[in-house]
Amino acid sequence: MAGLDHLIADDLRRLIFYFLDNELVANALFIAERLTVYEPSADSAHLSSLCLLRLGRLSEAADQSERYGKSGQHLGCAYVFAQCCLGLGQCRDGIQALEQCRSSWVEVNSWGKHSESNRQILPNAASIYCLLGKLFEGCDDVKSAVECYSNGLKLNAFMWDAFTRLCDIGVAINTSNIFKVSPNLLVPTSEPFCSRSYDSENSGYPLQAENRPSQTRFVGLPNADPFGTSTRHNLQVSQPSRRVLRPAQIARDTTSKSKGKKRIATVAKRIRAPEVSSEVETQILRGSGTQTPEYTLPSVASLATRSRASRTEPSSIRSERRTFVQGGDAQYTTKAESSVSIPDEHQYPTIVAGHKRTPSGRLIQNQTQEFVRDQVGARKSVRQMNRTYAVRTPDPKTGRTERERGVPTNSKVKNPATNKAPTTTLLGDRSTDHKAFSPEFQSSQTNNTFSLTLERRQALESLLSLFKQLGESYYLSTHHQTPLALHILTSLPITHQQTPYVLSHTALAHFELADYTTAALTFSTLRKHSPHQTQHMDIYSTCLWHLRRPIDLTLLSYELSELSRHTPETWCAIGNSFSLDRDHSNAGKCFKRATQLNPKFAYGYTLEGHEYIAHEEFELAIQAFRKAVVVRKRHYNAWYGLGIAFLRLGKFACAEAYFRRAARIKPRCEVLVGGVGMALEAQRNFPAALNHYTAAANLAPKSIAPRERKVRLLLQMNDIKAAASELEVLRGLAPQRGFVYVLLGRMYALDGDKEMAVRSFGRAMGLCPERGKAITEEMAALIEGIEDEDSDVEML
């Protein structure tokens, strides 16, 4: 029964891979629970916890992986456990789990080992460093988080998540030192489409089982158990890789109706398979055998060429390429296959012994060195083994068929000069093609290899150049150099500019520059390209709020609520719609709902705080703003809100501190610099306040608010001449704003010009009739004050 349980576990494992690959995670979880019954091991616990994690059941996944993960016994369990700890807020436990198994992942690099048919289910060092950075960030250990993110980017420059988090933290980054070709990215990506069998210390197996197991077979080599628990150093060869890796002959399917295949199968039944010693086997698999250079791994170019040729070649032609070799042990072989075969006609998956690896999961260095050193020899041998000839196709020049020209048939031949064994073929005598062994041929193959390496490097450089542009724009945006970031985004190729990511960040850049009209237009374009996107729609709704477009804002809120009522951006849009209608109570409830859906949503807390300020509930506003800065320490909007709240409460020193904190984050924002001026003005520090108002006006020459505050302060300081100069500029910026003429009336009244003062106040009442009473009272008080001063002068 033990053997039967083992086979059942194999089938269950393949089913799990199948369901995970097809996003049928619930089915995979059901099968994984059955697997834990037949094979209660760390491997089974990892698969089960992985399914729970993908279903979002974090607590259950943590319980399932804690036994082998928290202590670091199993890398997969430790990684799943750490991810669960990150989601559950137990970051210390996640850090401990990953640190316990550091030796098993710190040197693992899986660059180039992921494709459609080859997966690594266990993480590598770059991904674990990124997860560690998030865990340290959750523990407020920013220094360790920055170190982990940096290590992850050194190993894999495409780790975009690590880069963006470094930018959000506020680290000074030179993107040229990150997005560049490094030795980690230049490792060979031509590894055959095979994967290591699952190992509790070091393993990676494909997420999908064999697509066509009926077309593969077992090769009778020692320790060739794909999922066994006793032997974990195996190499599973999937069906697409049968033309790529030939350490032992993989017998072809004999179920075809091709006549050539039937004839060859008849001959193959009379041939016995020779046994292979473990020493020879190791040489074959590692590609280091001195007598069989044919087993050296081929290069990428040859793999791609052979894959295309194999897909397009008729099966009848492939069957005619089989030959019969005499001399020594008779055996059945083909030109595209090696000399060791098992002519068993049963349909089994092909499993051969795997590469030697260290406990940390790295390949033994000799293999990589010999792969690079023997590339020329490998390409030569693979080309010889994979020469294809059309059957009975005469040459247009000589009239001879390819079968008459002949090809080399002995796959054990290392050099034509040393081949003394007589050979015969099923298709007749053939002469050896010495062209493949000529120096010119080898030189051309070497040039092709160098050309491929050069093309690979050029492709990486082009891709990294694109990432550098995107990364530079993101870095500049997070460090509030928005004009430069916008310039980079608009200089991208037009095809990239039309992607949702670039469109959304272009709109955000315009929003940061207070160009709300252009930002709204860009957001509208984004909605056309990606109508179901909810990310950044909270900023879009705020943009419409600033533009005072209630109809557009209501329509956006309705569309988002129809699309998804469980996203915080939807409730922010609804809250902004209520706020524009001056329904601050319902607006605050909507913002609170947004933060309930996502407690890490800092912008929702900020909007909630501003609504509390509109209600004059300053204590609640302070609580909301503080929650926002806990989530995002560099969220300058929340720091500014805290300054406003304390300013209203009369705590001017605290308000100044919060305004300065916000201004340090975004030093070129006129609103934040003006906030510092307001706090200084409240403390009667008029010269310092005037300097900040002047700086704010210089940062944004077309901004009205800093100039208005500057004029009010100048009038309070009785500096009529400077106030008149600023009022001329202000009247040019806002000719239809009533407050401008109120300030003009005050200036004329202080200057003693009653006629111009009355005329200015009258113009203000015409522009702002709703404030007519307040303007009349101010005008009367100023004129009365002037008359009192005149009477005092006459008495003197």
TrEMBL record:
Q: Name one GO biological process term.
A: anaphase-promoting complex-dependent catabolic process
Give the span(s) annotated as Disordered: 392-442
Q: Where is the composition biased (Basic and acidic residues)?
A: 394-406
User: Which Gene Ontology cellular component terms are annotated?
Assistant: anaphase-promoting complex; cytoplasm
**Which domain of life does this protein belong to?**
Eukaryota
In the UniProt record, the signal sequence range is: none
Point to the regions of Polar residues compositional bias: 408-426
SUPFAM superfamilies according to UniProt: TPR-like
Q: Provide the alphabetized UniProt keywords.
A: TPR repeat
TPR repeat ranges per the UniProt record = 568-601, 602-635, 636-669, 738-771
As for family, the record states: Belongs to the APC3/CDC27 family.
State the name under which the record lists this protein.
Answer: TPR-like protein
Which lineage do the record's taxonomy fields give for this organism? Eukaryota, Fungi, Dikarya, Ascomycota, Pezizomycotina
